[in-house]
Amino acid sequence: MTDSATDVFEALAHPTRRQILQDLKDGELAAGAIAARFSASGPTISRHLGVLRNAGLVTERRDANRILYSLASDRLALSVGDFLSAVCPEQIVLRQVRKGRGAKATEAGEAIA
């Protein structure tokens, strides 16, 4: 059995699946609408959606005879974030420094205004 991070990164490995995730960032789409955006066959897109679903990156719900897909953005963010934190712990420090600079810049801007 593979671990969940492996499933996520395997799902992200294919450009069609990454494009599907990007297409879902603005909201729910029907399977047919997703398939219409690609030159690949419907069954091929269905398999890609299955990989994304099995990795927990998308959710699906039925509406009559349609299947609607949504991005599970928390799962994606947590999986990639956990990996980056383990591999590049300095990224956590850099984010905190950037946030601190952003807060100081905002305070300075308010003081000037």
From TrEMBL:
GO terms for molecular function: DNA binding; DNA-binding transcription factor activity. Transmembrane segments: none annotated. Coiled coil: none annotated. Keywords: DNA-binding, Transcription, Transcription regulation. Pfam families: HTH_20 (PF12840). Residues 1-91 form the HTH arsR-type domain. It comes from the Bacteria. PROSITE patterns: HTH_ARSR_2. This is ArsR family transcriptional regulator.
